[in-house]
User: Fold these one by one.
Assistant:
Number 1:
Amino acid sequence: MFEPLISEKEAISIKYLPQSQILLALSDLREQNRVPLLLVNHFQQKKGTYKQDSEYTRKLGANDVFIQLQSGLDSIGEQQCELWIGSGQWQYGHKELDVDVDLSFCSNENTLIGSVSIPLEENSSLQNLSQLYYKQIIDFISEQSKQHLLRMWNYFPDINQSGHVLERYQEFCIGRHNAFASGATKEFDYPAASAVGSASQALSPKMVIIFIATHESGLFLENPDQISAYQYPSHYSPKSPSFARASIYHTGKLQQLHISGTASIVGHESKFHGDIINQTHQTIKNLKRLIKHGNEECAQNEQFSLMSSSAGAPIIKVYLRNPADKEIVAPIIQAFTPDTQYICYLQADVCRQELDIEIEMLLNSQRE
Ligand code: 3EB
């Protein structure tokens, strides 16, 4: 058997796999004494496919993944899953936040990963819900002494539609901002994040929040070519989006760079409205600038690289508003990260109406 990569021995490793490979991947993990922590299905439970889904779910049940959930997003092409893997001792738990809402989590000494799926009603206020549940997450991770949020994902339907007063994304931003403002999290330690719109025709619409929290604070980065999201002018949202462009965390010999959802934004302005090719090029430019900046700020030995190394290769997730754009952007992204083994294309609405693509990444590097 191959010696596991450093990223696989020391930290959470994330793989994007087609659903058809999940059961096999899980049985391989068992043989290697590695722990399946979280499985995200990027496809919906649709009427008519119930039988097939329940078969998959039943087999999965026997494989003991700590946390399983549906993102509410749809894959473009084959149905994709996201499998998070740990090693060593992890413990599972869950906490009831509300009648229908559990926070599922698993944690080791340094790290806690968790998820909350919040059922949405027609008239749910995204502001109230995000404020309420962010506050509960923040309180919970403090109790668990993993009080530093490192990385968060936020998925909810109809992100660009109007909510009670404002656009639903803006209402979400206000609630999130208020929750952070009421706690100890300041601008300079906002987590890296992604926030995109999930499919609106879901059978049971949800706001899904997934997060990584750590005992010691990560390092948070901004992109020199972009205004920090938390300093955007107020016309984007009365309370600016509370996230960092990237975060870095060390465990053992590994350092990991979590890059937030990144779009075709320069300064604070959206660029290349209606032009998916140039939006993709601009997004890649932003990603490269951020990686370069991360390396200048803090790489200790090995640099974060787009190429694969002893610490592993980057993984990359691409959110597209229009599934048909995959054909156009795939060759551009392939040329950008030729070494990546794991790339995941999802259909999602970018939180700015005029933008059609958002990309997030996770890179590993080795330190002494
Ligand atoms: C941007 O750069 C694009 O509100 O958490 C990207 C990543 C974006 C995260 C969020 C929003 C968020 O402003 C949008």
Number 2:
Amino acid sequence: MAKITLSNLAHSYLPDPQGPEDYALKELDHVWEDGRAYALLGPSGCGKTTLLNIISGLLTPSQGRILFNDEDVTDKATATRNIAQVFQFPVVYDTMSVRDNLAFPLRNRGAAASHVRERVSAIAKMIGMEHDLDRRASGLTADSKQKISLGRGMVRGDVNAILFDEPLTVIDPHMKWELRTQLKSLHREFGHTMIYVTHDQTEALTFADEVVVMHEGRVVQMGTPEELFERPAHTFVGYFIGSPGMNFLDAHVKGAKASVDGTEIDLGADYGEPAGRVRIGVRPEFVTYHAGGSGLPVHLRRVEDVGRHKVLRTDFFGNELNALAPEGAEVPADSGRLSFDPRGINVYVDDWRLAPRDAAPGPSGRAA
Ligand code: ATP
């Protein structure tokens, strides 16, 4: 297992890049801790695969270095990096049995037969194929073949890292949940450094200790699921994480108050008087829709019943603002007011979160 250091790393697919817009991966400096599970999350084209391929050695970065522990592996071939990889589509040996497929990475390295037996049996259990070990892989569904690929990726205990590139794409929805949970418990048990690429926030948030959110070739935030939910560092994170995502409103901020089109909103903390494009962001979980009193005047456009609660889609001068209401709550028809819980409000200047003036540093040294 290894700590992975990305130092001054960037990549352009163009031979002669002129500016940041020519880079599929914009400069980044990060240390990914040994033994943690990371998810690379972002929409299609944001640079996830580019970053993963640099880590695996399929791609040499046009700038910067990559280290596994203290060893510079930037120019090393994939085969010598001692990593396991699981791809989007299954890679299995059709003529071999399930058992031999799972055992392959261990036997290839000369592992003792007893160790092979023990690991293959544990992994077969994890992927729910302990009764299929003697079947040939050729007759299996794509779903089962992908489970074998996942198992093969997990079977060795001595790899520097395990890299997963959207591994659950071909797995049926029920099994997805089960495999994700098992991957997580296997991670707890064996402590591999894991990097998991996905565009699915549920997969990222349930699997990872830390989620690395990417947007247009940039890492916009690296944090725990709680941090991404409570303190999105960038408006993109607020919008991309959550269902529905964060609400944003242009505002004038002075001290602990924001003014939105004449309505004053209590921010709960002092933000000074920021200049630039200033917005407040608040998740629907912290927004209450009510009939009268103070608050932002809105029209109710739609109510969606999603089981545990209702999503209220409201309109504020063409700006959609969403609120949640408990199942069975009375919802005033047509128009009402929105109130915001100050604990759920963040302030953004030119898309980046502004820490309040009196914020104590968080456990990572960042202002909470
Ligand atoms: P997806 O989920 O669709 O795979 P991604 O987040 O993994 O997307 P990348 O595949 O890393 O994103 O692509 C990042 C950017 O680099 C995109 O604009 C893409 O078009 C471009 N790109 C990727 N591979 C190449 C390549 N081989 N040559 C040129 N441009 C590329």
Number 3:
Amino acid sequence: MFKIGVLVSGGGTNLQAIIDSIKNGYIKGAEISIVISNKEGVYALERAEKAGIDNIAIASKDFNKFEGYEKEVIKKLRDKEVDLIVLAGYLKIVSQDFIDLYPNKIINIHPSLIPSFCGMGYYGLKVHEEALKRGVKITGATVHYVTEGADEGPIIIQKAVEVKQNDTPEILQKRVMEEAEWVIFPEAIKMIVENTLTP
Ligand code: GRF
């Protein structure tokens, strides 16, 4: 069985898309072994619980140093012997030490067509606000490998989404999630599990 560890910080709709894709057989031969949140009480943990998936909050704010926090996360992932780490709305930086332990085994989703509207500070609604401000007609989402620079790793899949007149950041965010994120994240994971992707 291919083992996946998912790191989250919030609502977990992308986590849900992955849970559903395993449940309905789109992704075969894989399981989510652990869901880790850096915050307590986030809805993503409840989603994991409801699906019967082992889950834990390792509250980053309880640690004096980021390294101490991340060590705990890594320990948990190692205990579970995960083959792939999926950052699904995870709002913490991943250190170089962490990346070195899992080369080409950490993936992230970003709600724009990289290299547009990405990098430091581009997360959540801000991405969509900037896309609307710039007046792009097409935006989308990107699944990529995680390397040291924010949103700089090799791209795995992208999907375009139309920007419509009168879009607000909230409306655009929802369309990007529904039409792109929840589609290409499971797709990327399926390709990795089936080993049909050359990094
Ligand atoms: C998504 O827009 C994702 O692209 C970004 O953070 C958001 C997380 O949403 N990295 P959710 O927690 O999966 O609902």
